[in-house]
Structure formats: C-alpha cells, structure tokens
Amino acid sequence: MESTQPTATDRALVAAGQRLTVKVPGTSANLGPGYDSLGLALSIYDTLTVETLSTGELEFELSGEGADTLPRDASHLVVRAIDLALDRLGFQRSGLRITADNVNPHGRGLGSSASAVVAAVTAANALVPAESQQNRDWILQLTSEMEGHPDNVAPAIFGGLALSWQDSEQYSSTHADVAPTVIPVVAVPDYELSTETARGLLPASVGHHAAAMNSGRAALLIHALTAQPEFLLPGTEDYLHQSYRAQAMRPSADLIAALRTAGHAAVVSGAGPTVMVLANGEGEAAAVVDFIEAFTSSNTPDVGWRVMTLAVDVQGARVEVHRR
Ligand SMILES: Nc1ncnc2c1ncn2[C@@H]1O[C@H](COP(=O)(O)OP(=O)(O)OP(=O)(O)O)[C@@H](O)[C@H]1O
Ligand SMILES: N[C@@H](CCO)C(=O)O
C-alpha cells in the first residue's frame, strides 16, 4: 500500500531569513485537586527568539535558567519540538539560531518544559506560510502529546485558568476568568524534583472514597477561584497526588501543612517542589510572604527559598514577528 505521508524530500523548506520572538508564561498545574486537568498561567516569562538560517547550522545563545546545563544541539527540547511541529505541518528546516532567555526555574513545578515546547511549537507554526499555519487548538494537541498531559501547556498557550480534558488521544481546553482578588504567591526551593520521578510515586489506582472527595473539591475550587475566593482553603484540598509525593519533597510538604493550618490555601505547584499559595487579596499575600520567611528560616535552614508574589497572566504565549 502506498503511503500518503509526506516524506522528508517532499517537505518544503522553511524560508531562511525569518526572525520571531515568543514570550511564554510559566504555569502552575493541579492547584490541589485538579490533577492533570487544571492549570494557571503566571507572570513569570521565558523568551525564545528563533531565526531561520540558510545553512544547516544550529546556533545557540542561552541565558538564565539552564544556560549551563542544556544541550546545544538537535537534542535541545526546543529544537526537538520545532522539528516535530514542522514535520506535522509538512515542512522541514534548514539552520536555526536559537536565542533563549529562561527565567522559569527548571524541575521545580512551574511548567518549564511545557513553556519550552509551547514556545517552540508556537514559533514553528509562525515560521510557515500563513496558509499552512494552524490555530491554538492544534498547538494544544501537539504540545499535550509531547508533555503527556494538558494542564501546563493549556494555560501557557491561552493564559488564565485553564480547564483541560482528554478523550482518548484528543486534548481539549477551555478557560475561566480568575477573581481579581486572587494573588498567587510561590516559594521556590533550591532543590529540584523531576516530573517523571514525581509521577513514579503515584499509585496505579485510588479508592472510590478518595475519588469522590477529590471531585467535590475540584468543583468547589473552580467556584472559589472564579467567584468566591473565601472557599479557596477547602477547594484546594487534594486526595490524588500530594500525599504520595511528600516523601520526595519533605521541606515543601512541611511548609504546605503549616500554611494550611494557618488558614492559607497552599498547594504543591505542578509536580513540585515549589509551594504555591492562592491568596485572597493583597493583605493575605503579604501575610503569606511573612509566614513563609519566618517558617522556613526556623524549620528548613538547609533549603534556600525564593519567594515571589506573582499575577495571573491572562494572555498566554505571544509572538512578535521581526520584520526586515
Ligand atoms: N526552556 C527550556 N529549554 C530546554 N529544555 C528545558 C527548558 N525548560 C525545561 N527544560 C527541560 O525540562 C526539564 C524539566 O522538566 P520537568 O517536567 O521535570 O519540570 P518542570 O516542567 O519545570 O515542572 P512541572 O512539570 O512539575 O511543572 C529540565 O530539566 C530540562 O531538561
Ligand atoms: N499534572 C502534572 C503536572 C506536572 O507536569 C503532575 O502533577 O505530574
């Protein structure tokens, strides 16, 4: 049977001499009970500039997070994602100059890998002729396939609070407006935990009671985030993942327990180990920062923490095309 797939030689070359920049927000997934489905875009941004070269070379200018550790060849996550996206679009590249300035810390639960693939696929889509470009739902599909779940990539693409779901291999997402008083405060520890390791700690199944409790809290959380933030503390209670992963991030788990006992809606951000508090108003956000500083200096003296009061990003990934 003849294949209808384009072969490498059928694919058109992406035009050389183009340059564009994608700015992409970091994200916090799960938000407590929204495991693999809820995610929030945060005002912490990575910037990726891609220039197409006529020679086949790959050039890298990396700064910020990962500059000392990331590969500078075709195995770089951004190049792999660009190549896959171009392949799906029926194109191939020649050379690329990649300039990445990464602010989002890696392996901490703020969706750095999702931001990287969203920036890369968004860039690839913008490099092909307008008639071949796809919409953001296509970007959601491809980047969810790459990540294995949609909860980080969806808010990175669309901004705001993303509610995502999966039907077989098809990923979908919609988004909701977060109440303006909600302020995310994050405490980023100086130790890493890979998503792969954290997923390996989860049980293959949970009981009916835990599933029922979790679905009630996930429903409450949407109402708390969008309309009644006074319910954020009960709404962020999780029964599916945080307790199983606590052993791999004990300082973060202890901080979350102390914050929740004090009445603050603290959760593990993504697969951890960053702690995020969804504060209701500037007064609570300031109190949370003071609480974290006091608690960590007394209880986790061996761990360095970076505490940031952020905002919800409502725009998602944006592209700037540099005209010549
Ligand atoms: N901007 C980037 N460019 C290239 N590779 C990246 C980039 N950001 C992350 N990565 C790769 O992804 C890894 C981190 O992915 P991982 O899924 O473990 O954590 P995370 O995405 O930061 O957190 P989480 O998924 O829990 O929110 C890094 O160690 C690095 O290999
Ligand atoms: N839902 C994912 C988010 C991190 O990528 C997890 O908790 O494993």
UniProtKB/TrEMBL annotation:
It is found in: Cytoplasm. Transmembrane segments: none annotated. The keyword Aminoacyl-tRNA synthetase does not apply. It comes from the Bacteria. InterPro entries: GHMP_kinase_C_dom, GHMP_kinase_C_sf, GHMP_kinase_N_dom, Homoserine_kinase, Ribosomal_Su5_D2-typ_SF, Ribsml_uS5_D2-typ_fold_subgr. Pathway: Amino-acid biosynthesis; L-threonine biosynthesis; L-threonine from L-aspartate: step 4/5. Belongs to the GHMP kinase family. Homoserine kinase subfamily. Catalyzes the ATP-dependent phosphorylation of L-homoserine to L-homoserine phosphate. This is Homoserine kinase.
